[in-house]
Amino acid sequence: MSDSLDGRCVVVGASHAGAQVATRLRKLGWQGSIKLIGDEQYLPYHRPPLSKDYLKGAKAKDGIILHAEVAYAKSDVDLMLGHHVERIDRNKKTVELQTGEQIGYDKLVLAVGSRPRELPLPGVELGGVHYLRDVDDVDRIRATASQGGRAVIIGGGYIGLETAASLRHLGMEVTVIEALDRVLQRVTCEPVSRFFTRIHREEGVDIRVQTQVKAIHGDNAVTSVEIVSGEMIETSLVVIGIGIVPNTRLAEDAGLAINNGIDVNPFAQTSDPDIYAVGDCASSIHPRYERQLRLESVQNANDQALVAAKSLCGQPVAYDAVPWFWSDQYDLKLQIAGLAEGADEVIVRGDPDAGRSLSILHLKSGSLLSVDAINRPRDFVFGKKLILEGAVLNIAKLADDNVALNEAVAK
Ligand code: FAD
Predict the structure, then answer these.
(1) CA distances from 203 to 48, 207, 241, 330 (A)
(2) Mean of the per-residue pLDDT values of the chain
(3) Dist CA 325 CA 297 (whole Å)
(4) pLDDT of residue 221
C-alpha cells in the first residue's frame, strides 16, 4: 500500500472524511507533506447539526467545528480553504485548482462527499427555495424562517423530518410532502415510519404521503407550492430534501472506476493505487453484506478515512465496520445499527402508536442484523454489540421489553 511515508499527500474535500484522513495520517506516522484542500470558506465542521441545533439557533458556527485551527497546525497539515479542485492529471500526478495552480501529489485522497439531488420542477430557482447541505444554505433558510409563516418541505427523509422539527421549534407552520407511501421509506422499517409520522402530527406538522409537487409559484420569491391534485399551499419557504448524489465528476474525468460512487477496494483504494476515496463519495463491496454499498453517514466517513490513513501509512486493515447512524427530532434520538436486509424475523419493543420510545430488532436465523432504537440508548448499545458478535438470541427474551438485550443471548 504505502511506498514511503515521506511523500506528498493531497486530500481533496475538507469535511468529516477529509479532516479525519489528514489528522490521522500524521498520528500514524506520515512524515511527508499533507495538504487538505476544501472549497468551503469555513474550518471543517460537523454537518449533522445543520438541520438540528444549528438551524434552531442552539449552536453557532464556532460550536460545530470539527477541530480548532491550531490542531491542523500541530499536525503540520496545510489547510487550504476556499479552493476548488477542477481536475486531476494522473500522468503528471497533479491536481489543478480553479485558479489554474497545479499541486503535485504522490498520494491523493478524494473526500469530496455528495450534493443534494436536484428537483427538476418549475419554480425551484425562486427566492425562498433551498436545499440543505452546508452552513450557507442554513444561514439562508434561517433568514427566511425568521419572517415566520408556513414552510413546505419536499421529501420526508431524515433531512426533511429534522428540518420540520427545527422549523416547528422556530415557530413556523410546517407541511411535509412525501411522494412515497410513508416517510423514511428508503431508510427504515414501517413501524419506525409510523412512529415518526404520529409524533410529527402530534407536534403540529401537516404530513402528506403519496403526494407529489407539480410546481413552485411566485414572482421573485416563492408564494405557493402546487401539488399534483391541483391544491395550492401558500408558503414563503421551501426546503427540498430528496436525497443526495455522490460527487464523482473529478474521479470520472480522471478515468477512475465508478459504481454509484467512486469504486474502492476494502482499503479505500480506487482503481488507481495512488488515489484513495473515502466517505459519502466512495462505494465498495461491504464484507458483511457482500454487495456494493455507498453509505451516507458520519460513522462511515470517519471509519473509512481511518482505513485509508492506515493503508497510506503501511498498516492496512480492511474496512468491516457495522454501519450506524442517528437522527435527532424534537426530544427523540433515533439510533440505527446494522442493515435489516435479509431479515426473517422482526421484534417490536414498545408501541409505535403511543409514547416516545421504541426499538425494532431485525433478525436472521436467530441472530441480530439491525436495531432501530428511539430514545433507547441501551438497546442501541447492546444491539450493536450483539450484531458484531453474531450471537444467537433467545427470541422470547428479546420480545420482553423488561429484559435488557444483552441478557437475551441463548445459552
Ligand atoms: P461531505 O461532508 O459532503 O464533505 C465533502 C467536502 O468536499 C465538502 O466540503 C465539499 O464542499 C468539498 N468538495 C467537494 N468537491 C470538491 C472539490 N472538487 N474541491 C474542493 N473541495 C470539494 N450523518 C449521520 O451519521 N448522522 C446525522 O444525524 C446526519 N445528519 C445530517 C444532516 C445534514 C443536514 C446533512 C447534510 C448530512 C447529515 N449526515 C448525518 C450525513 C453526514 O453529514 C455525511 O455522511 C458526512 O458529512 C460525509 O462526510 P464527507 O466528508 O464524506 O462528505
Answers:
(1) 22, 11, 20, 9
(2) 97
(3) 6
(4) 97
- pLDDT digits 0-9 by tens, 162-190: 999 999 999 999 999 999 999 999 999 99
126 Cβ partners below 8 Å, 6+ apart?
216, 218, 220, 221, 222
Q: Is the CB of 327 under 6 A from ligand 1?
A: yes
pLDDT in tens, 53-103: 999 999 999 999 999 999 999 999 999 999 999 999 999 999 999 999 999
Are the beta carbons of 379 and 373 closer than 8 angstroms? yes
Q: CA–CA separation, 108 vs 269, rounded Å?
A: 10
Three-class SS of residue 191? Answer: helix
C-alpha cell at 284: 465498495
CA-nearest residue for atom 46, ligand 1, is 298
Residue showing cell 485548482 = 97
**Dihedral angle sign, alpha carbons of residues 152, 158, 159, 163:** positive
* Residues constituting the chain: 411
Q: What is the CA radius of gyration of the chain?
A: 22
Nearest to 20 by CA among 408, 299, 340: 299
Task: Give the confidence band of 239 by pLDDT, cuts at 50, 70, 90.
Answer: very high
Tell me, in angstroms, the distance from the centre of ligand 1 to residue 286's CA: 20
Is the CB of 234 within 6 Å of ligand 1? no
Output the nine-digit C-alpha cell for 332: 427523540
- Does residue 159's CB lie within 6 angstroms of at least one atom of ligand 1? yes
The pair phi, psi for residue 373, each rounded to 5°, is -120, 125
**Distances in whole angstroms, Cα of residue 271 to Cα of each of 90, 154, 406:** 12, 37, 42
Backbone angles phi, psi at 64, to 5 degrees: -120, 5
Whether 114 is in the pocket of ligand 1, judged by its Cβ within 6 Å, is yes
* Helix spans in 203-273 (H): 249-253
| Phi, psi for residue 122 in degrees, rounded to 5 | -60, 135
